[in-house]
Amino acid sequence: MTRRIRRTGINVALVVFLAWGCSPPASPPVPAQVRLAGRSWTVELALTRAKRQAGLSGRTALPAGRGMLFVYPKPQKLSFCMRGCDVPIDIAFLDSALRVVNLYEMQVEPDRAGRVIYRSHVPARYALEVAGGTLRRAGVRIGQQAECLGVPDPAAAEPDENATGRLK
Hints:
Elements: H1 2-21, E1 32-36, E2 39-46, H2 49-54, E3 66-76, E4 79-80, E5 89-94, E6 100-106, E7 118-119, E8 124-131, H3 134-138, E9 147-149
Parallel strand pairs: 2-3
Antiparallel strand pairs: 1-2, 1-9, 3-8, 4-7, 5-6, 5-8
């Protein structure tokens, strides 16, 4: 009897120890989304200098309903180019209040050198990149309000070294 109690006690202690050190499986993260002009895009987040620098370069396609949201820790004048990009991209610059402050349809450059610069012209905190022609077809206009879901606080984004935005 004593042996059985001892063995049960050890088993109970082992279960408690294992349960205490283990946490329930985490639920998958909710994909980030940007809603604008009645449309919604599932976006990759570019929160670090390295991710913002790489951007969508090297992609051979950008599926409908997908994109990238560049997040900066503070508003600043942003500059983008098409260095290394193989697909046309639309870009919408958004201010801290998530209002569209500038829009461009960026075309692939024959040498992919990124010589044409697309600027926000006013301080922006976000840049949304989606497939070329998408923003025009969606009716996106300067001044429209966007909504971001699953996007962390921009203060958590890594600052740029030169604080002038990013050139891909």
